[in-house]
Amino acid sequence: MMLLTSRSYKFNQLIRINKNLKIVQLHLSMEKDTEIERIVRIINDHPFPDKPLSPILHSRIPQAALSTPFVEKVLGKLFAAHSNGLKAYEFFKYCLHNQQYNPSSDAFEKTLHILTRMRYFDKAWELMERIKQAHPSLLTLKSMSIMLSRIAKFQSYEETLAAFEKMQMDIFSGNKFWTNEFNVLLRAFCTQRQMKEARAVFNKMHSQFPPNTKTMNILLLGFKESGDVTAVELFYHEMIRRGFKPNSVTYSIRIDAYCKKGHFGDALRLFEAMESANCAPSLETITTLIHGAGVARNITKAKQLFEDIPKRSLQPDTAAYNALLSSLIRSKDVISATALMDEMEKRNIEHDNVTYHTMFLGLMRSEGIGGVSTLYVKMVEKKFVPKTRTIVMLIKFFCENCRVDLGLDLWNYLMKKGHCPHSHALDLLVTGLCARGRVEEAFVCCKQMLERGRTVSLIVFKMLERVLVQMGEVDKLEELRCMIKKLKLLLPPPKQDTINLSFTL
Q1: Which residues neighbour 55 within 8 Å (Cβ) at sequence distance 6 or greater?
Q2: What domain range includes position 121?
Q3: CB of 267 closer than 8 Å to CB of 233
Q4: What are the distances in angstroms from CA 109 to CA 67, 92, 218, 253?
Q5: Are 129 and 171 in contact, with CB atoms under 8 Å apart?
Q6: Quick check: bond before 49 cis, omega within 30?
Q7: Quick check: is 64 in a domain?
């Protein structure tokens, strides 16, 4: 009896120790997250380009804190926050100068992504050269893909091919380019839906870089993303004629193409053919079908597919729940959708941006401003930061429904989180504030944007110019004018086929 009591005591002690350890780990994790947010705020809030960022980084960020995962998380936050690319680059260079810091491919790729997103291509090439010299092992197919995809988006076909050649002959000169690198080049055009260019590259270079099934799937995916089901099927048959055997990815792409066009019956027939060909469907395939059932307003089938996931020895993830949530919203069943969000929480399946975006859309259509504002408050309480399209959608909705205060609240929340919202969000908010005579707050928002190294649109500047002149606030107008002038010297030139927002002042 005493032996059993002793064992029971030891067992309870182990449980208590384990619980205490988890509490300590959670506390440390929260402290680290707070520190990451602090660094992101320091970088984003720093007046740019009036003062150099490097001295602030040296004085405010201890080098001992620069662990590999810590730097990756800061750069991830800077990317999500739409930070100015030059600021992120300064931070990464500061880290590279620390001899104790061990840089990772992930940190390098995030910095490269931030630079290329803002079209700082000279700095991006400079970064690649720096990494080639000091840390060549960090150069990966992913970094190549980031660079080529952005060049394909913002520059010409010839410039993209020239960039690929530069990588082959210079940046990645120690590596032999083969099919994998060729696939990266094709993907760059396909992700931008430039299928004419992708076809031209394939026809020109496939003899030099023998294609594989992945090559064909990349092209097939490109045709799918362009929204042309006929082109998908034509290329699929070409793939078969060339002797390539379709795999589960091939079937999933074709299924998705039919689902997006509302041809759910065709998608189901393909799904049956997929199983007959012994291509095991992945969770992503099932998720695609659930979404397709929602597009076809077949909520019964959507629920059945979702309930069958465990029977296939798979576990539903956030994406699968989001697909069912979308199906419920399309069928205008907001009550069931709300219950599904609660179920996700109970099962520790996180709500992501798609979850919130989908739910906000449903609430806008069914419950209006009351339902949206309730979910918005819950989202902020959970400290969740939505992505750009959701931010723009919410600010637009708030302003259109006479709740510009909530739009401003969202803006201030993002500022406190160290984020720099997209310029379109600023356009909507400034328009809403000026329409209600809240010019001072509109001016502050513009100033915050410019201080963070992001420009304002011509529309916003002209709007503020008009109202500030009417109010006799010429000094504030001049302050904005000077900030834009300084920033204009550092920002890349506008894309040729867009309106020139870096206007003459």
Answers
A1: none
A2: 38-139
A3: no
A4: 17, 11, 21, 27
A5: yes
A6: yes
A7: yes
The answer to whether position 440 is within a domain reads no
Answer whether 316's CB lies under 8 Å from 306's CB.
yes
168 within 8 A of 208, measured Cβ to Cβ: no
Which residues, in sequence order, are CB contacts of 423 under 8 Å at separation 6+? 449, 454, 455, 456, 457, 460
Query: How many structural domains comprise the chain?
Result: 1
Type of residue numbered 101:
Y
Are the CB atoms for 152 and 192 separated by under 8 Å? yes
Contact residues for 463 (Cβ-Cβ < 8 A; gap 6+): 430, 431, 434
The first and second tokens of residue 132, run together, are 């080639």
Which residue spans within 98-191 are E strands per DSSP? none
Amino acid occupying residue 44: N
Nearest by Cα to 294 from 236, 252, 339, 337: 337
pLDDT digits (tens, 9 = 90+) for 430-466: 999 999 999 999 999 999 999 888 889 999 999 999 9
The model's pLDDT over 338-358, given as tens digits with 9 standing for 90+, comes to 999 999 999 999 999 999 999
Residue 13: count of CB within 10 angstroms of its CB: 10
Tokens of 297: 């307003």
Is 131 inside any structural domain?
A: yes
Q: Provide CB contacts within 8 A for 11, sequence distance 6+.
A: none
Distances (CA, A) of 100 to 62, 66, 134: 12, 8, 14
* pLDDT tens digits along 229-279: 999 999 999 999 999 999 999 999 999 999 999 999 999 999 999 999 989
In a 10 Å sphere around its CB, with 0-12 CB exposed, 13-18 middle and 19+ buried, how is residue 288 labelled?
buried
Residue 44: inside a domain: yes
